[in-house]
Amino acid sequence: MNQLDLPFSPRTISEEETYRPALAPLKGLILAWALSLALVGSVAVMRLLGAPVPWPTWLMLGFFTLAAALMTTGRWVDGRTIIEAGPQGLRYHTPLHEVKIPWQELRELRLLPAGRTWRVVVLADRGRVPFRVMRSQAALESSPPFIALPRGETLLRGILGMAPWVVHTSQNGGWVLRAGNAD
Predict the structure, then answer these.
(1) Would you say the pTM of this structure is higher than 0.70?
(2) What is the pLDDT of residue 137?
């Protein structure tokens, strides 16, 4: 382990690198839309036959339609999310917002255990860059690929190497690091 006693060794980022999250499988999304459409069909048949539509049917229709819409939106956002790291700093871009953080403005790095992954959050005055990294090769091989950022360990090692980090706290198997230039 390195001088910070972390499971990742720092590295220097010398050229622009781009990271994109892996997309979750479509199975759940297709299932939610299929159930929603089946319920729409059921409601249409009941209405055509003059039968009353029970309130649980409306409730389930609303639930499955909302679930499908939220999963579609999440997949759309994930598909357009980009994390770029280069000699100048980090850029985190989603369709909803964009954050550009020069290396010298980094304030804090949180590395927290979350099941089979490390939850990583880079904080600065301008915003934050969140992502997940697999905790071990065994976890990577036995987990779905969309759980963590592909090549996320490479990004984390680069972030560790581009700023002078000092351990602020270490508890519950995780770390909170402060940049050497932070207050």
Answers:
(1) yes
(2) 57
